[in-house]
Amino acid sequence: xxxxxxxxxxxxxxxxxxxxxxxxxxxxxxxxxxxxxxxxxxxxxxxxxxxxxxxxxxxxxxxxxxxxxxxxxxxxxxxxxxxxxxxxxxxxxxxxxxxxxxxxxxxxxxxxxxxxxxxxxxxxxxxxxxxxxxxxxxxxxxxxxxxxxxxxxxxxxxxxxxxxxxxxxx
Length: 170
Description:
By secondary structure, this protein is of the alpha/beta class. It has 2 domains: about 10-25 and about 105-165, no CATH class; about 30-90, no CATH class. It is built from 5 helices and 7 strands; from the N terminus they run H-E-E-H-E-H-E-H-E-H-E-E. The strands form 2 sheets. The chain has a 4-stranded mixed sheet, covered by helices on one side. Helix 5 (about 135-145) links the parallel strand 5 (about 125) and strand 6. Helix 4 packs parallel to helix 5 (about 135-145).
């Protein structure tokens, strides 16, 4: 009888959660209003409103947009809201913050759509390597969602995991 090679990873009852699969395709862009400030300090309402009316917003069509002001200036909240009113109908997503904030928001939106019930009493491996950037916030939120449900949570690849949590047996 020959020695049969058994793939124990395939034979295990581990469920892999690959956050890379939740990556929302599309270009990410940052709209920084710092260049629209008078002397880099002040937002003039009339000039800002004129810019908004005259600017060709089509460049943002279908993109994921983060709006921010990187200058050390006090910008009224309504200015960001006004930008959102022109971007929202054409962009896929519009948020206030950095590109990292945008990525977190996109992943959290997708995490809200996951059927978490499929992980009840299961051994779950949250896949660690990916071809796209997955924010740490997405991994933390995945653990938050899995912790009350899964019997165990691990991080990494099925062949090499870091244990994170194991449900106590009663």
